[in-house]
Amino acid sequence: MGLLTYVVKKLLIGIPVIFGVTIILFYIMYMLPGDPIKLLLAGERVTPAKIEELRRAWGLDQPVYIQYFYWLSHVVRGDLGVSIVTKEPVTLLISQRLPYTLALMLISTLLSYAIGVLSGVLTALRRGTLVDSVVSITGIVGYSIPGFWFGLMLMLAFGRYLQILPISGYEGPHSLILPALSLALPSSAYVMRLTRAEMIEVLNEDYIRTAWAKGLNERRVLLVHALRNAMIPVVVMFFLDIPWLIGGAVVIETLFALPGMGRLLYVSIIRQDYAVVQGIVLIITVLTVVFNTLGDIVVAVLDPRVRVERGGGV
Amino acid sequence: MNNNAVSKLVVAMLALIVVIALVSVYFVLMPSPTQTPTTSPTGTTTPQLKRTLVIAIPEEPMGLDVQQVTWSNEVHDLIFQPLVVLDPNMSIVPDLALSWEVSENGTVIIFHLPEGAKFSNGDPLTAEAVKESIERYKSISPYAEDFADVQEMVVLDTYTLKLILSKPAPYLWAVLVTNYGAPVNAKVAREVGNDAFNRLPVGSGPYKVSEWVRGSHVVLVRNDNYRTNMPFVSNKGPNPYVDEVIVRFIPEDLTRIAELEAGRVDIVRGVPLDEVKRLRENPNIKLYETLSPGIHYIMVNVLKEPLNDVRVRQAIMIALNRSEIAAVLDNNVVPWYSFLSPSQICYNKSVESLGESLYSHDLNKAKELLKEAGWVDTNGDGIVDKNGVPLKLTLLSPTDDPALKKSAPLIQAQLAKIGISIEIKEYTYDYIRDLTSEWNFELALRRFSWADPDILIYLVHSEYGNYTYSNPEVDELLELGRSVTDMTERTKVYSRAQEILLRDLPLIPLFVLKEYTAVNKNVKGLLVLPPYGTLIINDVWIEQR
Q1: Is A213 exposed, middle or buried (0-12, 13-18, 19+ CB in 10 A)?
Q2: Residue A97: in which H helix or E strand, if any?
Q3: What is the CATH number of the domain that holds A239?
Q4: Cis peptide before B306 (omega within 30 of 0)
Q5: Among candidates A54, A93, A256 on the partner chain, residue whose Cβ is nearest the Cβ of B255
Q6: Which residues in chain A touch residue B26, judged by CB atoms under 8 angstroms apart?
């Protein structure tokens, strides 16, 4: 019962967050220099009268709060509006692109946490050895490399010269390997450092010494007693990280010419395609709230103390 | 601690995660389209040929119906076929149309279509169909104004269409020679609706749409009903050697070039200037060069002190060392002194020579002009001043136009030599266009591109243009230029207008850009036509690498 109330509360708090974000974003898009209609009619071959006509047709002559409420009234009915550029429903545009981005996020997250957690545990257990130094330094280097540059290097190495993987575009799941690696490696370095620090801290705790003293076997000490506790902040990170990956996807999808949502977001911002940007950001916001809540639930399951304190019950 | 246990743990976790990752990849991607842009269709007659042509372009079209988009590109060029085109010497020649006649006073144009002409779906392409198409353009295109002077269209017989114009409209030809002027199958558009037609349009061009994968590519297959009357191609029907054209959208320059060099792409558009030198040295790649139909220039706010003084503008014009700019840009630009490029109709070499003779680089003359205008360096700080105010100007430079962006610091250094201090502000091109249309600037780096000189009316006409410049004489000439049909006379009108602009300098010409198409050597028979670098693939065949 305690857990359920806790989850419901978390989700309720998420609703004003989503509203807040959409309002702020709407104003930011509105304040941005430039005008979507002028961007649309890019040539010089157009009269100011035509621009005015189109602006009226798209309701862009209305005050921003009216535009927002108009948008919101459609959103609650499940209609994200129509793209000013392609004149197609935003829901259609996003649904065509979302699978690629979700797949990319999923693979790169799994990769980065697999690499990060394993190397983090390894360096913590081998603290002060050569293995620790080599892996840690590699981690710092990996963390400092921009994903864009790293992706370009991977592309040149595996696509252009070795020719074992596609350079760009989507030709099948193997097309996602290089983009996922370029997203995963820099973030795995961060995960490694976090895991390593947590693991070292936990291994110095009294209860671990007790566990050793009890004569428990190594697997049990490390997996049940140490890892479970060391993993809590890492799990929180995992859930908080996922929405941020879309940010990385904007760059990586553009570099690798993948038809994902990140690239759609990038193109739509450049063309000031309000409805599409709003729609994508709404999805990112919802994802953020959902994953945050999920993260809280998982932590609550892993660590009952959280539930009691934050739930305010019992 | 037991090393073995740790290693086992590591291996086990790694294996598990890899398995999860692989399974999830297939699970998530199962329902997605499975287009592989390298498959070639069966039924090859000459096995040593590659049957699919792959073109990489930077930007995905916003729609495929040329009457609904605000900018068209290579995809539209393949789907649609204009009535007439410009040949390599910039003269108007037939494409879909067999021939045409223009009445003495220029207000009647009669087009003769070839008998049996068809759209790609087999519908007859008759005079009636062309008429319906133009009517549709006038009602839905953002550029509907293009056909504003077409007052009436009369179908004389099945294959003859008469356009009656309210006044002579020579600039109409600039539209007719592009894909904007190409007939679309308006009947199908009516049946399926404009939105569906924008995804899957029907035209009469050499290829037709088979599939459009959003954000990725368009697959075009041969239109077997295609016929052309272009005199400069030998194959006037469907190309038997290229069954399929795939146009891929690859936004990143480096990625596009890497795909070309790896041989996965045959033709690359939007070649970055930085890569031209390297590509030229690559023995597997051929570069096609066309001159941009327009100039790159400095736009001047002629209302603002001290730029309202023509002598200051002239001083800037003379102080610029255009060959230095061209050298820094690896000679991918041609230094320019007038307002129309050789890829534009009514270009006149003698106006360009006049501009060059008046304003060729001369620092002393520039300083002299500034002095006349009252600008002298009195305090010895290197910047000229007048009444205690130093001559400082801001120059807006677009971050997304590499040629202009690179010229900005050179312009700054060159003008410093005559004591003008320039501050560079960088924005995106579109934002700079907005700022200039609100007259909120001093100097701005800009460009334009359109084959007809009528584009000048949108630049410097006091009413149609967004510019600060106003000169009744120029207004009159530019309006006249819209109605003079005789080419020699029309060229005279625009030459006269340019001569006045050369004196007034509301914009300061910098250079004409060379535009490149990079093509793999195994692609044979390709034509790249000025002014827009249109790809003509009628005679193309691709050798297997």
Answers
A1: exposed
A2: helix A90-125
A3: 1.10.3720.10
A4: yes
A5: A256
A6: 173
The dihedrals phi and psi of B272, each to the nearest 5 degrees, come to: -65, 140
Q: Which amino acid is located at B169 in the chain? A: A
Residue A203, domain member (yes or no)? yes
Give pLDDT < 70 ranges for chain A.
1-2, 33-34, 39-48, 304-314
Extract the tokens encoding B297.
Answer: 């220039």
A39 assigned to some structural domain: no
> Phi and psi at residue B80, in whole multiples of 5°?
-115, 160
Locus of tokens 């894909």: B179
Please answer yes or no on whether B264 and A99 come within 8 Å at the CB atom. Answer: no
With a threshold of 0.90, tell me whether the complex ipTM lies above it: no
| Domain coverage including residue A299 | 98-309
DSSP string, B524-537: ES-EEETTTTEEE-
CA quadruple B61, B64, B69, B74: dihedral positive or negative? positive
Asked, for residue A59, whether it belongs to a domain, the answer is no
Domain count of chain A? 1
Largest CA-CA distance found in chain A, in angstroms, rounded: 85
Q: Which domains does chain B have, with CATH numbers?
A: 35-266+522-543 (3.40.190.10), 296-514 (3.10.105.10)
In this complex, the residue of A86, A156, A218 whose CB is nearest that of residue B62 is A86
How far, in Å, CA of A298 to CA of B493, rounded?
A: 77
Q: B30 — contact with chain A (CB < 8 Å)?
A: no
Q: Which residues pair with B246 in a beta bridge?
A: B54, B219
| B489-535 residue pLDDT tens | 999 999 999 999 999 999 999 999 999 999 999 999 999 998 889 99
Is the separation of the CB atoms in A190 and A184 below 8 Å?
no
- Are B450 and B294 in contact, with CB atoms under 8 Å apart? yes
Q: How far apart are CA A129 and CA A121, in angstroms?
A: 13
Q: Can you read off the two tokens belonging to residue B151? A: 């007052």
Residue A82, domain member (yes or no): no
